[in-house]
Amino acid sequence: QVQLVESGGGLVQPGGSLRLSCAASGNIANIETIYWYRQAPGKQRELVAAITGGAATNIANSVKGRFTHSRDNAKNTVYLQMNSLKPEDTAVYYCKTKSGPWGQGTQVTVSS
Questions:
Q1: Facing residues of 4 across strands?
Q2: What is the reported pLDDT for 5?
Q3: What residues does 69 pair with on adjacent strands?
Q4: CA 85 to CA 71: how far, in whole Å?
Q5: List of residues 6+ apart from 61 with CB closer than 8 A
Q6: CA 55 to CA 74: how far, in whole Å?
Q7: Could you tell me if 59 and 51 are in contact, meaning their C-beta atoms sit under 8 angstroms apart?
């Protein structure tokens, strides 16, 4: 089973940007859908976006127009570009396949 590892989180000021990476242990082209989730402190985990092939679906209304995705098949990595970040985007971000395990995630903190 392909393992996914998140990275790229950090501390950023409101209005700033971050790019999260989701690196696969195998050929990412073989993964039908990759899901980005996030979990804020004290809140339930929520779906941020589902990426099937080259298209993003099920994008959370709270991030529409601010978050975009891309992929580099040569690096077996997908990316979540997060722009115009807000304090409410603060969360641990995860990438996951439909049946794969949860990873450790990467912390994103938006604060001045």
A1: 24
A2: 96
A3: 80
A4: 21
A5: none
A6: 18
A7: no
**45 CB-contact burial (10 Å; exposed 0-12 / middle 13-18 / buried 19+):** middle
Exposure class string for 66-103: b at 16+ Cβ within 10 A, else e: ebebebeeeebbbbbebeebeeebbbbbbbbbeebeee
What is 10-75 written as a DSSP string?
A: EEE-TT--EEEEEEESS-GGG-SEEEEEEE-TTS--EEEEEEETTEEES--TTTTTTEEEEEEGGG
**Which region holds residue 77: left if phi is over 0, alpha if psi is between -120 and 50, else beta?**
beta
**For residue 42, which phi and psi values (nearest 5 degrees)?**
75, 5
pLDDT digit string, tens, across residues 46-75 = 999 998 877 777 889 999 999 999 888 899
3-state class (DSSP) for residue 81 = strand
**52-56, 75-79, 91-95, 104-108: range with lowest mean pLDDT:** 52-56
Contact status, residue 80 vs residue 20, Cβ threshold 8 Å: yes
